From TrEMBL:
PANTHER family: PEROXIREDOXIN, PEROXISOMAL MEMBRANE ASSOCIATED PROTEIN 20. This is Thioredoxin domain-containing protein. One of its GO terms (cellular component) is cytosol. The lineage of its organism: Eukaryota, Fungi, Dikarya, Basidiomycota, Agaricomycotina. Residues 25-178 form the Thioredoxin domain.
């Protein structure tokens, strides 16, 4: 039994270390091609970053700060399009079912904004934008971030220093930076 527990602890440590091992993405970096999900839990593919894109990372679907963070992106979608943005992706370490339900909750009339499930924290980990939220949210989660890309090349990165706050990653701040 003791060796089983030691083995399990070793595996848990290695997984946790791999989440936190990547350096935070910087401007001129490249968004890695990592499998994520949208709408269907059994189908994954890398994001297709063509033209100008915005990747908005949130710690958790349906959480109070995230429920107020994303609606201004939905409401100002046409302003983003007018500034040349092709796609806006909302990314969270939640399963595809939760992300689909959250999108329906926030935009019952629909929205072209894509809600992406990074259910294994693979993308946010590769971006160096994962943090341990075990005590509050049960496991690793995305930091609150906004990344502007030109294709897969990073143009700018904004990361909230305190995940519950929405300042530099707000729709207003990102629109002003474009």
């Amino acid at each position: 039994m003791s060796s089983f527990v030691q083995s399990a602890l070793h595996v848990a440590h290695n997984v946790a270390t791999s989440w936190l091992a990547h350096e935070e993405i910087k401007p001129n970096g490249t968004v890695p091609s990592v499998e994520v999900k949208e709408d269907q839990a059994d189908k994954s593919a890398p994001l297709k970053l063509v033209g100008k894109n915005i990747l908005v990372g949130v710690p958790g679907a349906f959480t109070t700060p995230c429920n107020s963070h994303i609606p201004p992106y939905i409401e100002n979608y046409q302003e983003f399009k007018a500034k040349g943005v092709k796609h806006i992706y909302v990314i969270a370490v939640n399963d595809a079912f939760v992300m689909k339900a959250w999108k329906q909750h926030l935009a019952p009339e629909g929205t072209p904004i894509q809600f992406i499930s990074d259910d294994k924290a693979a993308l946010v980990s590769a971006l160096g934008l994962v943090f341990d939220a075990t005590d509050l949210l049960g496991g690793p989660r995305a930091k609150r971030f906004a990344i502007v890309t030109d294709d897969d090349r990073v143009v700018s990165v904004a990361v909230e220093q305190e995940p519950p706050k929405v300042t530099v990653t707000s729709a207003k701040s990102v629109l002003a930076s474009l």
